[in-house]
Amino acid sequence: MLNDLPVQAEDALLALIGLYRDDPRKTKIDLGVGMYRDDLGKTVIMRAVKEAERRLWEAQDSKAYVGPEGDLVFTELLAREVLGAGWSATNVTGVQTPGGSGALRLAAELLAYQGPRTIWVGTPSWPNHKGIFGASGLNVKTHPYFDPRTQTVLLEEMLAALNGASPCDAVLLHASCHNPSGAALADDDWNAIASVVAQRGLIPLIDSAYQGFGRGVDGDREGLQTILAACPEALVAVSCSKSFALYRERTGAIFVSSDSSDKSAKAGGVLASLARVNYSMPPAHGAEVVRTILADEELRADWVTELESMRLRLIQIRRALASTLSGRVPSMAAIAQQEGMFSLLPLSAEQVMTLRHGDGIYMPESGRINIAGLRLDQVDELGGKLLRHLAQH
Ligand SMILES: Cc1ncc(COP(=O)(O)O)c(C=O)c1O
Question: Residue 315 is part of which domain span?
């Protein structure tokens, strides 16, 4: 049996970690994998997380099973944070999951539960979206979303595609900090999307993986709330990996919002049963940490303060990079307005390889850069190297 298995291509993004590590050049820059890094290039443990872990170590007296729906207090507190106090109180059910990927997987399996269904995904998107949805039995269709050359959101093209979608198709939306483009939607854009999604009877699946990195913890839920207000049924997949820097702890949740508590409860039951046959129960530690932070006013305030300082660092680097590049390539001014960790440069795969081999600048072939991988004192030098390629467009 094993002989006949196909050889899997390596995950190109994860492979970048090893390639970067093995490059001896002192001037190398890692703009690859999507983790926040500080000025020293470190992905640190947040202060509130450390303190929560200390408290848990002291207080925890059991490692008993928790059940497929995970930590119920965690999901309730997280719903309030991600959906807002008003929404979390109304007809919402949540199940804790192993990271945002686990949440997307359960969401996709729920969408596929009653038979074949199509999900619409913007181009470009996080590559694993298509992978997870396809593996869960959904039929993935794409619509235009972002043009790297002009650095603009293709809203009209997106709306036209969604207007052609069939009722009960699902549509994937990024809550904030679009991965890979960083392109932000204005309030009017969210309203226009909500109105088409509602009119066509589509089911939104909103991926919230970067709350706090765009407009702040409150601002980053506004678009999501516009969609929830317009749609009688919606799913929200949450990742705590970035917002709490808990990457390897695999912490997340899937929420169902509907116009009746009965419907949401039924969906919650199906999600728990899907969890049971996939991995039985989610890992406890990360959710306990998040619960401890969100349940304590002081710890929560410290988490918000630190997250805000991370957001401001990204804005500072964005502005510096945009000003270095936009003199020669005007479209690059948009980098300063974009949100979160990523921007998508209009580079060919060949240009990306030249930057990697010639200059030690590491990014995936798509041209996506992780802004957090940069220090302010590297911006000018990086800008010069990028301009050699960007100016050709
Ligand atoms: C848009 C988006 N959604 C979901 C995820 C999944 O995150 P997690 O590591 O929590 O599975 C990521 C991770 O990079 C992401 O970028």
Answer: 2-45+300-390
Q: Is 284 exposed, middle or buried (0-12, 13-18, 19+ CB in 10 A)?
A: buried
Question: Using CA atoms, how far apart are residues 318 and 151, in angstroms rounded to an integer?
Answer: 14
Residues 40-70 have pLDDT tens digits of 999 999 999 999 999 999 999 999 999 999 9
pLDDT in tens, 79-94: 999 999 887 667 999 9
pTM of the entire structure?
0.97
129 CA → ligand 1 middle, Å: 9
Domain count, the chain: 2
50 in any annotated domain: no
Catalytic residue among 112, 209, 237, 284: 209
- Overall size of the chain counted in residues: 393
For residues 243 and 129, membership in a common domain is answered with yes
Task: Look up residue 176 and give its two tokens.
Answer: 């904030």
Residues of the chain with pLDDT under 70: 88-89, 392-393
